[in-house]
């Protein structure tokens, strides 16, 4: 299953990496790709949307479903 969330505040590749790392740490996520130009992250796997948003926010970025 593929899920896309809105992520704002990413300004560089390092930011994308931090978001991807945060999402990869969520149980059920098999892959995560952040795109700062699109202000989004695409997640593969089975994970609760609220948990994904919380993981990104804990990493220091704004996120919404």
From TrEMBL:
At the top level, the lineage of the source is Archaea
Q: Which Pfam families match?
A: HMA
Q: InterPro entries recorded for this chain?
A: HMA_dom, HMA_dom_sf
Q: Where is the HMA domain?
A: 1-64
Q: Do you know which CDD domains this protein is assigned to?
A: HMA
Q: Which GO terms describe its molecular function?
A: metal ion binding
Q: What name goes with this protein?
A: Heavy metal transporter
């Amino acid at each position: 299953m593929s899920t896309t969330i809105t992520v704002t505040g990413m300004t560089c590749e390092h930011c994308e990496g931090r978001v991807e790392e945060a999402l990869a740490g969520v149980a059920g996520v098999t892959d995560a790709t952040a795109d700062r130009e699109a202000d989004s992250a695409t997640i593969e796997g089975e994970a609760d949307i609220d948990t994904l948003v919380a993981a990104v926010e804990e990493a220091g970025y704004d996120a919404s479903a």
